[in-house]
Amino acid sequence: MKIGQVQLTSNLFLSPLAGYTNLPFRLTVREIGGLGFVTTDLVNARSLLESNPVAVRLSATCPEDQPMSVQLFGADPGEMREAARAVRELGAAAVDVNMGCPVPKVCKVGGGSAMMMETKKTAALIRGMADAVDIPVTVKMRLGWDDQNITAPDLARALEDAGAAAVFVHGRTRQQGFSGRVSLEGIRAVARAVRAIPVIGNGDVTTPEAARVMLEETGCAGGSIGRGAFYNPWIFSQTRHYLKTGEMPPEAALEERLAIMGRHLDRMVLFYGEARGCRMFRRVAKMYSRRFGPANLFNRRVSLLRSRAEFDEIVEEFLAWRRRFLNDEGELLPQFQPRPLNASFLAGEGGADAEEPIKVPAGPIETW
Ligand SMILES: Cc1cc2nc3c(=O)[nH]c(=O)nc-3n(C[C@H](O)[C@H](O)[C@H](O)COP(=O)(O)O)c2cc1C
Question: Is residue 192 scored above 50 in pLDDT?
Fold first, then answer.
């Protein structure tokens, strides 16, 4: 599939997750494979124009990270146009716009962003950006304000006319926040509303089967995965394989998981420095360890990780400790196998495995 003129090798996307989708993670998932396109965390357009170090770091990329997009957040058409140019200069293949909720009443009560007040205004903003840069401008939206105000289909169509090259849609309303389940019908309505650009469906995909259902039931050109990618960075390569062959590939072996984790940590250390990189890796490591089977010792020790060398010690100690859960062939005894990941898991219904899930806002959501 293509986004504008950008040719992709896969129709699977990594959704932006503020605080998570940093360059080291993106490169790690790329190394595993199956991923066609990534988007950065949301970046404040004004901060980027002011060369705020946080915004610049969030937008950082490199050739192995391509094709990628920087997601901008902002309401001022002039600023968004300039920020799109800045994103282009930084080497991004596309620029994405975070759309809050596209309903007038949100703005009347003071919520939502000014750019969402009217479809016309939003369309003008997108047109301005599309005219200013030669890279595709994409948008990411929810279904609408609430069940009575499902505005995404009309907005998507208007933005296509204004020059948007693709629409990413999370199949929940602003009112829903992260509660309930994603509406595949809602996403399908968006996919049907546009004329020619790709619509990419998003929400609750944690397994290759869920990705297949998302694509088949919505008619979307691609699927985007957020939280599921952190619990299982192999999900893109597994899903690619499953969509091509109809067969589920075996889960990655523990040795492979540990090797990938080590390289992920190397990248964190390189990008953030050893102290900060290790501190940030603590919660990431615990996401990987959900697929280890028994991992108490690993989790306890990794939650205090301070150096790259210490990580190797932790792994060694963990492997020795873990032997007690193995059979004679060196495989985990059945009662210790990790539980499958599914949407209930994302909803925090995964029992002990769901300790420390990726935090989501409790109530309605204004921006993403
Ligand atoms: C911690 C967290 C941070 C997020 N940050 C962003 C963001 O910066 N921009 C955005 O468009 N969406 C953001 N989202 C929404 C996700 O991109 C995605 O639409 C949502 O999580 C549903 O997909 P999933 O079920 O695959 O996670 C965030 C979600 C979470 C949980």
Answer: yes
Of 104, 153, 162, 98, the C-alpha closest to 130 is: 162
Summarize the confidence of residues 248-276 as an average pLDDT.
96
Q: Report the pLDDT value the prediction gives residue 16, as an integer from 0 to 100.
A: 96
| Structural domain of 326 | 254-290+292-337
Pair 232, 297 in one domain = no
> Within 6 Å (CB) of ligand 1, which residues are found?
15-19, 41-42, 71, 98, 140, 170, 202-205, 225-228, 346, 358, 360, 368
Q: Compute the average pLDDT of residues 91-95.
A: 98
Is there a domain that residue 364 lies in?
no
Is there a single domain that holds both residue 222 and residue 328?
A: no
Q: What is the DSSP string of 255-314?
A: HHHHHHHHHHHHHHHHHH-HHHHHHHHHHHHHHHHTTSSS-HHHHHHHTT---HHHHHHH
For residue 112, give the amino acid letter.
G
The residue whose CA has the least distance to atom 4 of ligand 1 is 17
CA of 56 to the centre of ligand 1 (A): 20
pTM of this prediction? 0.93
Give catalytic status of residue 101 as yes or no. yes
> Are 240 and 261 in a shared domain?
no
How many angstroms separate the Cα of 29 from the Cα of each of 58, 75, 101, 152, 258? 17, 32, 30, 30, 14
What pLDDT was estimated at residue 103?
55
What percentage of the chain carries pLDDT values higher than 90? 77
Identify any residues that bridge with 224 across adjacent strands, giving them in sequence order.
Answer: 13, 202
